[in-house]
Amino acid sequence: MFARSDSAKEDYISAELAAIYQHEGRAIQDLLTRNSTTKVTDLLREFSMEQLAADLEDAAPWLWRALVVISEPGKSTRAETAGETRKHKGLVFTTICALISVMRSQKANNFQLVIGLFLLGSGASKREIEVLAHAGLSISYSAITEHVKSLSQEGMEEIRELVKSAMCQIVWDNLNIAF
User: Could you tell me the pTM of the whole model?
Assistant: First the structure.
């Protein structure tokens, strides 16, 4: 059938790949969308770029393979020499998949949330964070501050539960009392 018509072959392959990539895009979106009951502390505690890369490769094998093929250096590209390291492709592919997820749904932003909190904790300026948010690599500065507030509330809840369940003592340090 395809030997007689190149356009039929292209239409079939295009439609078939489109269906596969649409399915994998949904799987990526589901993977990077947190449940409404998921605490930010749990997300941060369990986050791992390496594990996320493995999960994304499992969820979207066709897309992952396409990224591997697309990123292979050609013959005209300088070969890597001994001791020279390049970017870890899995981390770059993970970032690409995270961008795909947030393009599909603004709620599929687990990756961007972790990156945003990292940027804030690393001392990045509001302006830098906003630039990365516009590029889709982070959430906005205002969203980060809201998540910091929720982290604070989650921490207070954990402290309250700890105080209720275990013996504890409150201690003040560095009191400046004039005698």
Answer: 0.77
Q: Write the CB contacts of 28 (distance below 8 Å, at least 6 apart in sequence).
A: 56, 59, 60, 63, 97, 100, 101, 104, 108
Helix (H, G, I), strand (E, B) or coil at 88: coil
| Res. 129 pLDDT band, cuts 50 70 90 | very high
Comparing CA positions, the residue from 142, 132, 87 lying closest to residue 112 is 132
Judged against a pLDDT cut of 70, whether residue 20 lies above it is answered with yes
Provide the residue count of the chain. 179
Element (DSSP H or E) covering residue 34: none
Please name the amino acid found at residue 99.
Answer: L
Lookup result for tokens 């340090």: 173
Assess contact for 20 and 62: CB atoms under 8 A. yes
The pair of three-digit structure tokens given for residue 40, joined into one six-digit string:
């930010």
Structure tokens at 139: 């959430």
Alpha helix locations (H) across the chain?
6-31, 40-46, 49-59, 61-71, 89-104, 110-121, 126-134, 141-165
Is residue 85 classed as helix, strand or coil in its secondary structure?
coil
pLDDT over 90 (residue 46) = yes
On the question of pLDDT at 42 being above 70, the answer is: yes
Name the CA radius of gyration of the chain, rounded: 23
